[in-house]
Structure formats: C-alpha cells, structure tokens
Design brief:
- The structure is a single chain.
- The chain is α/β, with parallel strands linked by helices.
- It has eight helices and eight strands.
- Helix content is 35%, strand content 20%.
- It starts with a strand and ends with a helix.
C-alpha cells in the first residue's frame, strides 16, 4: 500500500519539523489539501505555502485542489513542484480540457469524487486519468468519521478501471485508520491519505509503517 500523509493535520506552527519527519518516513507522497472557502466551507493554505513545502519535501507533492475553477492554476501548481494535480469532477465544467492541461504541464492528472458523486460519471474519461481520489468524508474538514459506502465505490471503480484498460490508481482520503485502511486495501485501493491518524499520534512514523504494510 502507498501512503500519502495529509499536511492538513500537521502542526502549522512548525511545518518544517513535520515535513522533515515525513522525509524520513516510509511515506510515498505528501498530500496537500488546498481549500478556498467557496467549493468547501473552509480555507487551508495557498501557493506561498505550497512553494515553501516544495522546497524542503523529499516526497512528491500530491496536491488536492478543493477549489472552484482549478484549471486556472495548472501552471502555477507545476511551478510549485507538484507531481500530482487532483481536481474535483464537481468543480470542472470542462473536465477533459482540464485533464489535458495538467498533462501538458507535465503533471499526473487526478480527478476527485465527493461521497455522493457516482463512479459511473468517470466512464468517459477514466482512460485519460493517472489517479482517481475518492473522498471517504465530506471535503473541507479533517477528523471526520469514515463513510463506509466508500468501500462499495472502490470496488465499482476497480471494476471500471479493469474493464476500460485504464492505468489509473485509486486513492482514498478521509477517516483512514488501521481498521478502515485494511478494508480499503481489500476493496482495491492503492493509496491511502491519512491526516489525523498520522500527525495526531505519538508515533507518526509507526502509523505510516502500519498503513504501508496493509
């Protein structure tokens, strides 16, 4: 299992220490949730923080844009050092064009689905995607309880990927713990995003190791 710790749950007063910890961990990515207070009812951080993190993170940046009109920021996100640009299907009027722009900028393209958005809406674009992120909580806040219907969606998405011949991998964000992570691994997930489970623990390196070994 690949692991992408979510910086949203880190200590914002000492991000450098937390990023140094992630650099020394078995994590595969560093997940960054960008919120605008419009698409989701919260504001997190913007490009000055992404730029600063990109300079010290040795893990590839997995940037999840919970914002309206994410297509406006493709080149700036590339310049910040992001490897993956994740946009919400619900926020993109011209999703195919946005995915094309992400690829043209040299990044991997991810599309995110909210809990109530059906996997079937991806059937006409799944072949173009590098990653699909399924939200297993409602986006906007950390520390929420896991939505168990996500397990059904993971299985549906895995079937769609296999039938279409897509190379997309499946990422899950929200309420990930050792228990839910095991269920997600069994359902077919490839990457687990974990915030509170990692950063709020006494031993975040061990928590990352636990998820890696699922």
């Amino acid at each position: 299992m690949k692991v992408s710790p979510s910086l949203l749950a880190a200590n914002f007063a000492d991000l450098s220490s937390d990023i140094t910890m992630i650099n020394s961990s078995e994590a595969d990515y560093l997940h960054m949730d960008v919120m605008d207070g419009v698409f989701v009812p919260n504001i997190s951080f913007g490009f000055p923080v992404i730029d600063a993190v990109g300079k010290i993170s040795r893990k590839p940046l997995d940037v999840h844009l919970m914002i309206v009109e994410p297509q406006k920021w493709v080149n700036q996100l590339r310049d910040s050092g992001a490897e993956i640009m994740n946009v919400h299907l619900e926020a993109c009027l011209h999703l195919d064009r946005t995915v094309y722009s992400i690829h043209q900028a040299g990044m991997k393209a991810g599309v995110t689905l909210n809990p109530a958005t059906p996997v079937s809406l991806l059937q006409d674009i799944i072949g173009e995607l590098d990653l699909v992120l399924l939200m297993s909580v409602n986006p906007g806040f950390g520390g929420q309880a896991f939505i168990y219907n996500t397990l059904k969606k993971v299985r549906e998405l895995r079937e769609l990927i296999e039938k279409s011949g897509s190379k997309a991998i499946i990422e899950i964000d929200g309420g990930v713990t050792e228990t839910t992570g095991k269920l997600l691994a069994e359902a077919g997930a490839d990457i687990l995003v974990a915030g509170s489970f990692v950063f709020k623990s006494d031993d975040p390196l061990q928590r990352i190791k636990i998820l890696k070994n699922l």
